[in-house]
Known about the structure:
By secondary structure, the chain is of the alpha/beta class. It has a single domain, classed as TIM Barrel (Alpha-Beta Barrel), CATH 3.20.20.100. It has 10 helices and 10 strands. It has helices at 34-46, 62-71, 100-111, 136-146, 159-168, 189-194, 229-246, 252-261, 276-285, 292-306, and strands at residues 3-4, 13-14, 18-19, 51-53, 80-85, 118-122, 152-156, 173-177, 198-202, 266-269. It has an 8-stranded parallel beta sheet. It has a two-stranded antiparallel sheet with strand order 1-2. The longest helix has 18 residues, at 229-246. The chain is globular, with a radius of gyration of 19 Å. It starts with a strand and ends in a 7-residue tail after the last helix. 46% of the residues are buried.
Amino acid sequence: MKYRKLTGQSPAVSEIGMGTWQLGSNSGWKDLSDKESIELVREALELGVNFFDTAPNYGLGSSEERLGKALEKTDRSQVVINTKFGHTDFGSLNYDAGYIRESLEGSLRRLRTEYVDSLILHNPPHAILDGRQSEHYEILEKLKEEGKIRAYGASLDTYEEMKLFMETTGGEVVEAFFNILHQDTARAFEIAKEKEMGIIVKIPLDSGWLTGKYDANSTFQGIRERWSREDIATRARLVSQLNELIGKDRDLSQTALSFCLAYDAVSTVIPGSISTAQLRKNVEDANVHLPDRLKMDLENFYESEVKKLNLPW
C-alpha cells in the first residue's frame, strides 16, 4: 500500500480508503451482519488501509457504530476517520449551523472516539459553501480549537462548488465526485494543490458501472432505481466504448481506480467493498500504473463522448 498526504494534522492516508456506506444495516446493498462488517474493516486494516469514510445517515447510524466497534482496539493515532454533517442518523436533512455540534457529538459517540480527523458538509446547499456568508465555518473552526475535529471540508460534485468552497473557507478537505465518466471536478484539482487541500475521490467506480458488471439489460433496486432505462442504455454504451479503448489486456475496474490515482492532487480513493475479495482486488488495483497515454485517451474520451451527455450520478 502507498500513502499520500490528506491534511497537515492527519497521518498520511492509504491510496485506497474504505467507504463504509455498505456497513450500515439496510444500506440498500447486500446487508452485512455486525460480524461481517467488523471483519471487513479489520481485513482492510491488515491490507494497509487506514482511511475510513462514513456518515451519520449510513444505515441510520449503524455504519458509524460498526466502524467504531471494529476500530476500538486499534492505535487511533494511525487511523484516519472522515465523517459528515447534514444527512442525519434518523434519515432527514439538517444543515442548520446550530446542529453541527449535536451531529458531531452523536458521530463521536457511535465511533467511540474523542475526535474525527475530518468533518465534512455532506453535499450541502450551494449557499452554505460561501464562507463569506455562512456561519457554519466559525463553528467548525471552534470545533478544531476544541480538538473534536482535526480538519473540515465538504463533499461536492462540481468544479463550481469546489472552487467557491476552496476560495472562501478555511476547509482543508474536499470529497469530490470524480471518475472516468464524471471528470468535471478535476478542473479544481490545481486549486486544491495550491491551497494544499486533500482530495478524497468518491464514487470512483461510478456506482458499479466501471466494474463492467452491468449492461443494457441490468435492472436495479434501492438507490440505483434512480436510473431510467435510457440512462442504463447510455451508460452501457459508454462502458462498451471504454472497454474497446482500454483493450482486452486491461481490467476496467483496475483502470478506473488507477485513473483516479493518476492525479497527484488526489489523496485517497474510496470504493465501497462488500466482500473481502472486492477489498483485496481494490487494494491490488491501486498498485497498477496507468500509462500517461491512456490517461490522456480517457480524458479525451470524456471531453468528446461523455461531457455533453450530462450523465446523472
